[in-house]
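S.,

Sequence below, as promised.
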Amino acid sequence: MDGIKAFTIMMKDIEVMRVDFDALTYEVINEKYLPYPIKGRLKAMLRPGEIKSSYDMTQSILASRKNEDAVVSWLAGRVLLLSRANAKWIYNLFQFEQVETNEQRLKIALVCRAVSVLDPYWLKYDDDQDTSWRKVDVKQNPLNEIVAQVALHGKSLTLQGSPVTPELTTNGAYAKAWRRHEDGLLWLYKLGANGNTESRIEVMCSNLLDKMNVDHVHYEAGEDNDRYVCMCPCMTTESKAILTGMEFYSYCNVNGFDPDSKMFELDKESIYKMWIVDFLISNRDRHGQNWGFFYDTETMDILGCHPLFDHNNAFDIDYMRNMDAPYQFGQMTIKQAAWKAMNEVDFHFTAPITREDFITERQYNSFKKRAALLGLRPDAF
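The prediction came back faster than expected:
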């Protein structure tokens, strides 16, 4: 690995773990604040004076490799995939090699200090001990407009300003970028892949969810460079960070928990309501990075589910035709999951849902039919 070899993983201004790839040292300073994807994966290493035999040396090397894999996979997992829209333009902007390897993604994480809007982790390097969380937190500092323009619109520009940007650690398939509104809050702007279709569906689904007793992120329609975008406010705060569903499952499996039992223990109401929503809106795109949990950044306790978001692939035509499509949870069809959920939670509409709430007649008819199968009346409550 070229460039930076040693750094400290930080949680805000708390030192969490010291990493030195050259010296093969992985020293946990504060175990409580280890990132969830690393918890339980680190192996104890012998100190140099404790190595008495070739067996000890072999075991120490194996532990070192496992620890390196844990740290590298966590950092690499924070970096956008090349498959994301405009990712190649972003790679070009930073003169990154366009290869999809953990080593390359690690290099990118080191450049941007692995900062993300999802949580308050970042990397402090040995030669910048005066740097603090306040100086790198993207919620408090100016965003790089050049990087945002490239991320959202795929422009060929020249990098200027700080490379510490959330655009390198924002996942998903669609073109998107973070913008700061006049009130100082961060909003995520997202473009559709086919004109403005997906963005319009996102706003439509948000308006539908406004009429259900479901916690969700509110999306609004907007414009950026004369293009239609859907936009939503950042849902993390100084005290609330996100543990994605993918990370949650990995954490549970590594640490001996049954993830299915654990998620219901934490917030069965939100899980069941998500199943019902996905059935009603024919959502084919529920995956491990668009559902998950909040956790408290002070106590590290996993809290309830974060609000639902990312429904721009809802009302998929093939999915609307197939109520028995496989679902991502419990080896059930999406209809079976919704039926089960209706028996477990109080799900209802809070305002009438009518034809005017939909873009197309087909979407409206699909929604009505699915609601009827669950014993729901969209036009009355």
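The first strand starts at residue 6 and ends at 11.

Coffee later?
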